[in-house]
Specification:
Structural class of chain A: alpha+beta
Distance between the termini of chain B: 34 Å
Radius of gyration of chain A: 38 Å
Number of helices of chain B: 5
Largest interface: A-B, 25 and 21 residues
Shape of chain A: elongated
Number of strands of chain A: 26
Low-confidence stretches of chain B: 1-9, 114-124
Shape of chain B: globular
Mean pLDDT of chain A: 83
Structural class of chain B: alpha+beta
Largest sheet of chain B: 3 strands, antiparallel
Strand content of chain A: 5-15%
Strand content of chain B: 5-15%
Largest sheet of chain A: 12 strands, mixed
Oligomer: heterodimer
Helix content of chain A: 40-55%
Order of helices and strands of chain B: HEHHEEHH
Number of strands of chain B: 3
Helix content of chain B: 55-70%
Strand order of the largest sheet of chain B: 1-3-2
Mean pLDDT of chain B: 77
Chain lengths: 895, 124
């Protein structure tokens, strides 16, 4: 049987009409031929044929699928009845979609950041190597608990019992990107230097071409593997890229392979664009650091800069592996270092590669808090949807009863309710996919996870399933009541029905009170975070950040310190000459970027200064250019700024901050004192004291600081230019780029931005956290308002007759308003009290995310409580006023 | 009661289908002609309600045993003609065979043996 017949029924029916007409005509003609009159011939033909209607109906049914037709009818009816109450439908769909969308977005990001493992073969056997206790005398770049020296890596990979493979990798730059050139276009890209076994031992497939071999590492082969993403983004997946030349910091390398899609390095959040084998050239030193005395990481055995991954040998447990490897590490750790007698070697630990390193600490707490907030919002949304459905269907009980008594089957009613729920859920599902997509991208952008992050389908289907179940449950609940009530309900008066729904409205009030409690929690959380953010944003930086622009420069051609200094002197000269530029300076670590040189307290005048023990013994350093403090607008309290005259051959000078002076040189003029350390190239005289200001980020506590001219540093590599500009600061960037090009056409401006923006980036997490909490809070309060309004409006509608009677008996309008309000004010009070323990719990957990706000901040609490009470009042005032405006006569007539 | 009616109408449907198929072996025809032929060849014993013919025709067509086309009738009006398909021919052979066996069996039951059976039953 051809199912298409179902859709051709109308045409077939018309066909049949013509066929029957032809038949009748033939029969009538025959009858007339027999001698009957026209009328009689027609009559006889009709008798002989029987009922035309029945023929039509029989054929129509033959071509029908009763079931399908029923469903179609149910959906048509559902759409009609939902359009009739479109306000209800839109509200329910929006609430559901927002709830599911927000939940899915947060969960997807959390999943990607915290739960997803590295896209490698058998990730359960792969571990990141960590140490506890880097040896004294080691210098370090990167995180001190996850960096290793070349000799340690070399020793570890030579053992072959516990670890079947040890893989090393190290970024080519300490700020993410290096200058690259392909053809004529100079740009920046993110790259790692890796061991020869990097791809093969991790089990990362190579999509095209080849990966690296042990030989590539041993010979430091000039070859490069691009990430699939970079290949797609930058080269439009052109196969011609393979075999072509790619310049990194001016060094030519040949593209030999494209890594598997989805593999973007071994650190979450950084999406590596390319990999090269471990190199020995000075230009391609680890972390982009200039080679000290021409020595790279390979020749600096005390430089701990490599990150290591290991794959456990088959049959070896984590514990066995640690035990066997520890001895190897203990021996290799002191290569190139003169250990103090009795110094303990570092202790090795393994961290599963299941989770990306460092991400848990950085994003774990905020994401979990956010997840909790979303869960609260979802709970409020769910209960709102439930209440709306209950209210709507309760008011339809008479409709159901009437239909039951007119002969509708309970099955038909059930199917209809199901159809309505299905329409709502389908619309909500489609919309929530959209919300989830937008939300996920926004969140991923914040977390700086460039890897192609899409909404997690599992999370989406899970939340959707929960809502479907809820919609079904609450959508069908009234049917049960109607069936139990039977057809009699149709004949009863509305006030009789009112009694019946008393139970319903009691549960609705419990739900509203709970929503209040949850909402209060969210509002307090949002309030605390918003206050934290405003504290952060209003924290004085200690310098004039307006009109200050910063960008990084890495002189690739400079081979020696003198060449570098010459380059920067030339650069400063040409930048100063640009129109609109008021001052220009340099700094090794860009303020606000989080980078800083940390060191112990130096000798002052040949003595260990006072107050320099333990935690007080740490200072931060920065190497900067001339006019640095003038350029940044930092007040100089005593002495002078650095000047062009502070050349490499000039006498050593240093500038300290207030805290440094007060702590280590109390009650004396710091200018003129000598500072120095045994291993410093020269002693320096303090020539100035500047006001305390922020260096690494906004939340930094003031710490003693020391600045030296960059011209006196051991190495001079990448520096950051600070420019104070009149007018539109960003407009100077293209002009500056031109000036740089005239010195070296291959040099891009690295991470150009306003200095203000650099500091804002250091609180980007708090900004987004606060914004999201704000959104969640507003969403929650909107949901609660809808909930209160919905329940009260519904109750007022149900009590129209009662209110009419009261007013007819002399009740004042104010009394009616109070009657309606009283209930909701009680609910608010109960909700607030019930929310207290939850709020306290939440504040406790939030404490670590706050800045200069106490977890029990009175202003926030009072504002949240008042805000919620006010919204509750407004939401209940509308139905209350409507009740008061009732015309008693009209109200009584509604019966 | 309902069940019996259903059963008998099923039986009638089956025979009507077979007779329609048989009628069309002599050539294509429209509904009116088919009704007339069945009436006439049964010597007016089987006077079908002409209306019931059409659902049967459409059912047979849906099953692929008949094909139809619009053509001009004897008095030059448009009429829907039905034609027997190959599948229809096979179906007719099947149905006719079954019918003949059934008719023979009924004839045997209703024939001279009937009396004997009754007497046998009686003697016992």
């Amino acid at each position: 049987m051809n199912p298409l017949r179902f859709f051709r029924r109308r045409r077939q029916d018309a066909d049949l009409d013509r066929e029957i007409a032809a038949h009748m005509e033939a029969e009538r003609a025959e009858n007339m031929a027999r001698g009957f009159s026209g009328e009689e011939a027609e009559r006889r033909a009709r008798i002989k044929f029987g009922s035309e209607r029945r023929v039509h109906e029989e054929l129509w049914q033959q071509n029908s699928f009763a079931f399908l037709e029923g469903i179609l009818r149910d959906f048509k009816y559902a759409l009609r009845s939902l359009t009739k109450s479109s306000g209800f439908a839109v509200t329910v769909v929006l609430i559901m979609a927002l709830g599911i969308g927000a939940n899915t977005a947060v969960f997807s990001v959390m999943n990607a950041v915290l739960l997803k493992s590295l896209p490698v073969a058998d990730p359960g056997r792969v571990f990141y190597l960590y140490i506890d206790g880097q040896p004294d005398g080691a210098s370090n770049t990167g995180d001190s608990d996850s960096s290793f020296s070349w000799p340690v890596y070399d020793a570890l990979r030579r053992q072959d019992h516990a670890l079947s493979d040890v893989m090393a990798y190290v970024p080519l730059s300490n700020d993410g990107k290096v200058a690259v050139r392909f053809g004529n276009s100079a740009e920046v890209a993110e790259g790692d230097m890796v061991s020869g076994n990097f791809f093969s031992s991790l089990g990362v497939h190579i999509a095209r071409g080849r990966g690296f071999s042990a030989q590539d590492e041993a010979q430091h082969a000039p070859v490069i593997v691009l990430s699939y993403n970079y290949w797609s983004r930058r080269f439009s997946r052109s196969p011609d890229v393979l075999g072509s030349t790619f310049y990194i910091k001016g060094v030519p390398l040949t593209v030999v392979g494209i890594a598997a899609e989805g593999f973007e390095g071994t650190e979450a959040g950084n999406s590596v664009d390319f990999w090269i084998p471990l190199q020995s050239r000075r230009e391609l030193n680890a972390w982009g650091t200039p080679a000290v005395d021409g020595k790279t990481y390979l020749a600096q055995p005390n430089w701990w800069c490599l990150r290591l991954l290991a794959r456990l040998a088959p049959g070896i447990s984590q514990k066995q592996a640690l035990a066997q490897t520890q001895t190897v590490l203990a021996q290799a750790a002191f290569i190139g270092i003169n250990p103090r007698p009795g110094q303990k070697p570092p202790v090795l630990t393994l961290h599963p590669a299941k989770a990306f390193p460092g991400y848990e600490e950085q994003y774990g707490m905020p994401l979990k808090m956010m997840m909790a907030m979303v869960a609260l919002v979802l709970l409020i949304a769910l209960s709102n949807v439930a209440m709306l459905l209950i209210a709507r269907n309760a008011s339809r009980q008479r409709e159901f009863s009437v239909r039951l008594s007119l002969g509708a089957g309970s099955m038909q009613l059930l199917r209809q309710l199901l159809a309505e729920s299905a329409v709502l859920v389908a619309a909500a599902g489609a919309l929530s996919w959209f919300f989830a997509g937008v939300g996920t991208h926004a969140l991923a952008h914040w977390a700086q996870i460039d890897s192609s992050l899409a909404p997690d389908t599992t999370a989406l289907s899970f939340t959707l399933a929960v809502l479907v179940l809820a919609a079904l449950f609450f959508g069908l609940a009234p049917l049960h009541v109607s069936l139990a009530g039977g057809t009699g309900l149709a004949l009863r008066s509305a006030s009789a029905v009112l009694n019946r729904s008393a139970g319903n409205s009691r549960s609705a009030r419990v739900v509203v009170a709970l929503q209040m409690a949850l909402c209060l929690t969210l509002l307090v959380a949002a309030g605390l975070l918003v206050r934290t953010l405003s504290n952060l944003q209003n924290t004085p930086l200690g310098f004039k950040s307006n009109g200050l622009v910063a960008f990084g420069i890495n002189p690739q051609q400079a081979r020696t310190v003198n060449e570098s200094i010459a380059f920067y002197q030339r650069l400063l000269g040409s930048l100063r000459a640009l129109p609109g530029v008021e001052a220009v300076s340099l700094s090794e670590n860009r303020p606000g970027s989080g980078w800083s040189n940390n060191d112990g307290v130096p000798m002052i005048d040949g003595h260990k200064p006072p107050n320099s023990d333990g935690e007080q013994g740490l200072i931060r350093l920065n190497n900067v250019g001339p006019d640095f403090f003038h350029t940044l607008g930092i007040p100089i309290l005593a002495g002078r700024d650095f000047a062009d005259a502070d050349t490499r051959h000039a006498a050593g000078v240093a500038i300290v901050n207030q805290t440094f002076a007060q702590r280590f040189l109390p009650n004396q003029d710091p200018v003129g004192h000598n500072i120095g350390k045994r291993d410093w190239t020269q002693h320096a005289q303090i020539v100035g004291v500047v006001k305390d200001h922020k260096y690494t980020g906004i939340t930094e506590h003031t710490i003693p600081m020391l600045w030296m001219p960059y011209t006196h540093a051991n190495t001079v590599g990448e520096m950051h230019v600070e420019m104070r500009v009149a007018g539109d600061a960003l407009a100077i960037l293209p002009v500056a780029q031109n000036a740089v090009r005239q010195i070296d056409p291959d040099l891009p401006l690295l991470q150009p931005m306003l200095q203000q923006e650099q500091f804002e980036r250091s609180i980007s997490q708090q900004i987004l956290f606060a914004r999201l909490a704000e959104c969640f809070g507003l969403l929650a309060i909107a949901l609660v308002a809808t909930g209160i309004y919905g329940t009260l409006a519904y109750r007022v509608a149900r009590r129209t007759a009662e209110i009419g009677v009261r007013m007819a008996l002399g009740a004042q309008r104010s009394q009616v308003v109070w009657m309606v309000l009283r209930g909701s004010l009680w609910l608010t009070l109960i909700g607030l009290v019930a929310g207290a323990p939850l709020v306290i719990l939440m504040s406790h957990y939030l404490a670590s995310a706050l800045y200069q706000v106490k977890p029990f901040d009175a202003i926030t609490y009072v504002a949240a409580i008042l805000g919620l009470a006010l919204v509750a009042l407004i939401a209940s005032l509308l139905p209350a006023l409507r009740a008061a405006r009732l015309d008693p006569v009209q109200a009584l007539r509604t019966e | 009661m309902t069940r019996n009616q259903q059963l008998s109408s099923d039986m009638l449907k089956g025979t009507l289908d077979m007779m329609i198929l048989r009628t069309l072996t002599t050539g294509d025809a429209h509904g009116h002609t088919i009704a007339k032929v069945i009436e006439r060849s049964s010597e007016d014993v089987l006077e079908v309600e002409q209306g019931s013919l059409y659902p049967a025709l459409h059912r047979l067509e849906n099953r692929g045993w008949l094909a139809s086309y619009w053509g001009a009738s004897e008095n030059n009006r448009k009429a829907k003609y039905y034609r027997l398909t190959q599948a229809g021919r096979r179906r007719l052979t099947l149905e006719a065979g079954r019918w003949r066996r059934m008719a023979r069996a009924i004839a045997l039951v209703m024939g001279e043996h009937t009396g004997e059976k009754v007497t046998e039953g009686g003697t016992e």
